[in-house]
Amino acid sequence: QLLASTTQPALAVKIIVESVHWARIVANRRRNYLELARQLSGLEGARIMRPALPDGSAPYVFPLYVDNYQATYQRLRASGVPIFCWDEFWPTTPMIDDDCGRDWAAHVFQLGCHQDLSLEDISQISYTVRSILQSV
After folding, report:
1. Which value, in Å, is the radius of gyration of the alpha carbons in the chain?
2. Could you report the per-residue pLDDT of 23-46, keeping only the tens digit for each?
3. What angle do CA 25, 26, 27 make, to 5 degrees?
4. Is the distance from CB of 122 to CB of 39 less than 8 angstroms?
5. CB 72: neighbour CB atoms within 10 A?
């Protein structure tokens, strides 16, 4: 009985992995990422961290470096934009000279580019990001 209970999660994972349409996921994430890059290019007060994608990559988020993060992050979250950042550190996180981690944690907004977002969703996200960043 113990053996069966420990192997079931592995079987479930195998079934899920084998039933997922990977090509669609990769294609849609790439499409959404590149469309965000196109629509947010030239945005004042922000820069696209990686405008192009390596072949075969399936990005989880779109990284956007925002200068005035204090005035914009919570407004973007409240607007419904799928957005994340590393806004908390473990108390024991060391301070290392020339480490960009703390800077990136505050300034890099991770915008969702999930495969099930439509191009209309991406346009709305881009519009909202532009509007809020331009209003500060």
Report:
1. 18
2. 899 999 999 999 999 999 999 999
3. 95
4. yes
5. 20
